[in-house]
Write a structure and sequence with these properties.
Order of helices and strands: EHEHEHEHEHEHEHEHEHEEHH
Cofactor: Mg(2+)
GO molecular function, one term: metal ion binding
Number of helices: 11
Pfam families: PFK
Largest sheet: 7 strands, mixed
Strand content: 15-25%
Helix content: 40-55%
Low-confidence stretches: none
Bound molecules: 6-O-phosphono-beta-D-fructofuranose
Radius of gyration: 22 Å
Keywords: Allosteric enzyme, ATP-binding, Cytoplasm, Glycolysis, Kinase, Magnesium, Metal-binding, Nucleotide-binding, Transferase
Pathway: Carbohydrate degradation; glycolysis; D-glyceraldehyde 3-phosphate and glycerone phosphate from D-glucose: step 3/4
């Protein structure tokens, strides 16, 4: 391998920049050239390629977002789009790709690899932590810390005014951010898509809280939970308990930004080096992940098809501690 192309695709996540830096510096260490592709797969289609050297990624490890920018490319879903992308790869003599993104980005990479024979390795970059084959995805730890910081602040005002707050957090179809931030902030209840809660379960949490003399409560709601959105939950709660002062906060895209935590920077650094070494060893169509502190390569099909399971023990911990 003489030249690696690196791109970030899908929703950005803190730590993507640290991973780009790692891929570029590891390539340089092994005497491999590196090109950055801007705007994800769209940049591959439209020839948005820049040369990257060890100095071009200085001061990047601590920055949120992605310097290469990211996109969810519609055109790359088409054969025509992918054959244009292949022309760019050939034009720049790129031998292999490192794709930093989520399962949608990996699906694109694997189809591209099969059609055009271009080797690629994926690095899991998403705040949702929903990718199989790694204990943690890039950006998840930072997003969790952002959420915990925000809910701590909400708790201050909730307590001062004896209020009930429904806080919606991201995670798409997964409840990792909700469950872990809920435990970390002492939420009264946590609603996640992986668990079939009913509105009665929520009301019994409130009954419990009333009996215990709690005067304020935080309920963390994953955006993908199935009971209805935060606004409906707030409405039903107000109907049932007119005496409650109910508020809603949707944290939104604040969860996607910010300087990555130490855990995300180290994870990004390790996975970037692993991806380059993996390509050098002839691996392709795999994702570099971390399991029990060890680098593990998972076939991309498996990473896409399977899903990280929510740890049932954590649900139990949340239940025990919220009483
Ligand atoms: O996958 C990351 C994520 O932030 C999800 O948690 C969320 O559902 C989605 O992306 C939001 O996407 P967009 O930034 O396109 O609104």
């Amino acid at each position: 391998i003489k030249k690696i192309g690196v791109l970030t695709s899908g929703g950005d996540s803190p730590g993507m920049n640290a991973a780009i830096r790692s891929v570029v510096r590891a390539s340089n260490y092994y005497g491999i050239e590196c090109s950055g592709i801007r705007m994800g797969y769209d940049g591959l289609i439209n020839d948005m390629v820049v040369d990257l050297g060890p100095r071009s990624v200085r001061n990047l490890i601590n920055r949120g977002g992605t310097e290469l920018k990211s996109a969810r490319s519609e055109e790359f879903r088409t054969v025509e789009g992918r054959s244009k992308a292949a022309e760019t790869v050939k034009k720049h003599n790129i031998d292999a790709l490192v794709v930093i993104g989520g399962d949608g980005s990996f699906t694109g990479g694997t189809i591209f690899q099969k059609e055009q024979g271009i080797p690629f390795i994926g690095i899991p970059g998403t705040i949702d932590n929903d990718i199989f084959g790694t204990d943690f995805t890039l950006g998840y730890d930072t997003a969790l810390n952002t959420v915990v910081d925000a809910i701590d602040k909400i708790r201050d005002t909730a307590t001062s005014h004896n209020r009930v707050f429904f806080v919606e957090v991201m995670g798409r179809d997964a409840g990792f951010i909700a469950l872990n931030s809920g435990i970390a902030t002492g939420a009264l209840d946590i609603l996640i898509p992986e668990q079939k809660d009913s509105i009665e379960d929520l009301f019994s949490s409130f009954e419990n809280a009333k009996q215990k003399g709690k005067t304020s409560s935080i309920v963390v709601v994953a955006e993908g939970e199935k009971l209805g959105g935060v606004y409906d939950l707030a409405k039903f709660t107000k109907m049932k308990y007119p005496e409650f002062d109910v508020k809603v906060t949707v944290l939104g895209h604040i969860q996607r930004g910010g300087s990555p935590t130490v855990a995300d920077r180290v994870l990004a650094s390790r996975l970037g080096v692993a991806a380059v070494e993996g390509l050098m060893a002839g691996k392709s169509n795999v994702m570099a992940g971390m399991q029990s502190s060890k680098i593990v390569f998972t076939p991309i099909e498996e990473a896409i098809k399977k899903h990280n399971e929510i740890d049932k023990d954590l649900i139990k911990v949340a239940d025990i501690l919220s009483t």
